[in-house]
Design a protein that fits this description.
The protein is about 60% helix and about 0% strand. By secondary structure, the chain is mainly alpha-helical. The protein has two domains: about 110 residues, Lysozyme; about 50 residues, no CATH class. Keywords: Hydrolase.
Length: about 200
């Protein structure tokens, strides 16, 4: 089961190059078992939320001081947040330091392995696991995750590693969201996108 250009445009009207996106998705999704209307609807709803409707393939880290403290209160208390505000590279290096396989802040790993792709692959460990799965190098992944083919491939790979097809089969969008996000951030938008996707694929 493929997604047509018309279906993609209906779900993601702000995305550019819908023909190329539809082709990339149709080429990769079946290889990961994302091949029924329920699985495709759940997958595309999550991708749509994470990528702002297939318009953003890299994490937006241009936070204000207030937002930094709200999102990462222990890493950016107010006095620290003021020093890092509106500096995406420095923010990433501090926010993601010493976790997810990344080195310390000075290593630059936080920025190097920031969220990329349509499901925002994040952290050196995850980049490395994806690279190994597709027979690529870390350098390849860093260079290509913002291309359509690799943005889709990484999302499908991540979806598969989290066992999300089974949850899609029973329409468990809340648990899918938790496995992708770690919580239920953006659940209303994800649910709305899912409802629209179901309509698109079953109309």
């Amino acid at each position: 089961m493929n997604i047509t250009t018309e279906q993609f445009k209906e779900m993601f009207p702000r995305a550019t190059e819908p023909e190329a996106w539809a082709a990339a998705l149709s080429a990769v999704m079946p290889r990961y078992g994302i091949n029924t209307s329920l699985r495709m609807a759940a997958f595309l709803a999550q991708c749509g939320h994470e990528s702002a409707g297939f318009t953003r393939l890299a994490e937006n880290l241009n936070y204000s001081a207030e937002a930094l403290t709200r999102v990462w209160p222990t890493r950016f208390p107010p006095e620290i947040a003021r020093q890092y505000a509106r500096q995406p590279e420095r923010i990433a290096n501090r926010a993601y330091a010493n976790r997810m396989g990344n080195g310390p802040e000075a290593s630059g790993d936080g920025w190097r392995y920031r969220g990329r792709g349509v499901i925002q692959l994040t952290g050196k460990s995850r980049y490395l696991a994806f690279a190994q799965a597709v027979g690529a190098t870390l350098e390849d992944v860093c260079a290509k995750l913002e291309t359509k083919a690799w943005a889709v491939e990484s999302a499908c790979w991540y979806w598969s590693t989290r066992g999300l097809n089974v949850l899609a089969d029973v329409r468990d969008i809340v648990t899918i969201t938790k496995r992708i996000n770690g919580g239920t951030n953006g659940i209303d938008d994800r649910q709305a996108r899912y409802a629209q996707a179901l309509t698109t694929f079953t109309a």
